[in-house]
Amino acid sequence: MDGKNLKGAIFDFNGTLIDDSEFHDRAWNEISMQLRGRPFTEDEIRINIYGKNNRAIVEYLSAGVPDADSTGTLAVKKENIYRGLCLANPERFRLVPGARDFLDRLKSMDIPMAIATASGLDNVEFYIKHLGLERWFSTGRIVYDNSSFQGKPAPDFYLEASKRLGLSPRECVVFEDSQAGLKSAQNAGIGMIVALVPGKSSYLKNHHLRIDMTIGDFTEITAGQFFTSFDS
Question: For a Cys-Cys bond, which of 8, 48, 149, 199 suits 156, CB 3.0-4.6 Å?
Fold first, then answer.
């Protein structure tokens, strides 16, 4: 699909606008070691962590549905480890290459933008505080895990994000990095789906995913590629 019918942009956050996958992996591996005595395998991380919310990950770790208290305790412990790693590595805890310029350009063009993230409110507030997300996104256009949405790959997050933009899913472009997230965008009927795959990894291939474009980072694209009524 070309950009002539696109009117809004929706961004996944973790792994898409920030390169924090390693910090999430390390934090979840600490929890896995406590619960199972071993870390996640690479396949488990790709399939059962990336794009999933904390409830789904704890359920997987527990081989069933844990009680609410256990879920909350483990999630808080994991996120405290994760946020500590972010703050200890300021050179890594920043928006990915090209993201600021790309977001600035969309803002200057008055393109409505939203975030659809499986992160919870505590992490969203942490990102707003340390990364200045209010420059581009109002709080009402950040869709996060508040326990009322089904997790990715269900379409809920992207349906809600497009709704908050006042657009149909078909009028939006989504930027995603995980299998679950890409499938969520596909299930929501998003008009254009862009996979952010640093290093041009082939891990997304052969998973029955509809991907319209693959990029390594935001330096490889211009706003005019998606919104053709404007100069790039």
Answer: 149
